[in-house]
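Same chain as my last thread, 495 residues:
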Amino acid sequence: MDAPASLPPSSHPAGSLRELLAVAVPLALSTGSVSVAQVADRAFLARYDPAALAASMPAGMLQWAVLSPFLGVGMTVGTFVAQNAAAGHPGRAAAAVWQGVWAAVAAALCFAALVPLAGPLFEFAGHGPEVTRAEVSYFQTLCWGALPTAASFALSGFYAGRGRTSVVMAVNFAAALTNVGLDWLLIFGARLPGGIEVPAYGIAGAGAATALSFVVACGLYFFAMTRGAGRAIRIYHYARFDPAMMRRLLRTGLPTGLNMAADVAALTVFLFLVGRLGRNELAASTLAFNLNSLCFLPAIGLGHASTILVGHRIGEGRPHVAIRTGWLATAVGVAGMAVSGAIFVFAPGPLIDLYVGDGSSFTAGELAALWATAPALLKFVAAYSVFDVFAVVLGGAVRGAGDTVFPAVWTMFCAWGLMVVPTFWGVLGGETFGLPALGGGEWTGRDGVWWAWACCTAYIVAVGFGMTARYVGGKWRGMSVLEGDRQPEARAEAG
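reply #2:
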């Protein structure tokens, strides 16, 4: 049986390292299972066709960018659940979960309209006919998974927001295993027992595997909510559309979604620009970003834990305890990234081998280009990763209180001002903006990639500094997403 909705997120002392790890470790493993599935996607595709590997990142990032506003609403469900559960309002927490699901329905309608536009969109990117065909196929397949993807984020908030992160971990493990198994089956094809022949769908099979894994996740959450706390508070009773709660959720969640969208959209444009430098440069960047996402899992788990624990402390009226949690999570994350950064710098070979395998799917030129570029890109990752910890963990902490507007605005400014525009200038030339060329637009191949990744590093460093300043400023301590006035204790501390 699950615990009642109003219990604290763990049995450990509030603000302690043990409490942080009790919530963060399952979330890190949960996120890790999803990232492992994504890495498996890319690794399988690299062995199927290098063009599919190059196409998977831009197409996947575009889908994620468009989906981000809906995912931001879904992620904010956890904040609403945390604060309402801590304040003794489990019914309002349940209502927030279902409004997240209704937002996922809107996401499905949006993506259905995008399917016929995929062709012109990727042709405009100019990545070459082979890569473009793969991008269109992958993106269109992912579009049909928008509903279960967004809904799973909202449904997970019912458990994550109450600190029951082991449930989220179990569901994500099951979804990741489904994704990896279907990847192997649908990308390469197979003959199943009974003489059933499954064709090789290539990159479309990878997209279908991802979409179906989120269907599995939603099914498991729906089943889990018929038991424990879900049954105790009659969670299905709150499934109706609630305009007032939806407005509150959108007011807090849309800035988070726009934050994600600004980040992901900027990285998508960044990859589109890198793709104009050449297929080999795009493949190396895809590989580096995927390894980055895999090794960054502990920090992501810590960021999610900070959101949950800060939200719970705000709901209790004890924001002073949340301050300690934020710094503790940051210290743990920095220590972890120092280790992975050292591996990226001094031993990148075994990581790259995960994608290359025996090299049979690459030409000699492609293989040489990958080994010449990817290790250097991983050094950029090592350089910005510590600052990324501050951005993710402390940004998650202030969002747990409901402070979502500043992170969105600052991320958008840094992403486009420090990464996209300078990269655009370097790849296509300053004349586009009415500026002197000054060498811009003349960089090709690896020279262009070094410039692009330097811009990416500047962006992440700036976001890290901004989130740290916001956290230290302390304005978030007086915020809340609870209905009615703020907690008097929180208001007094903030003042």
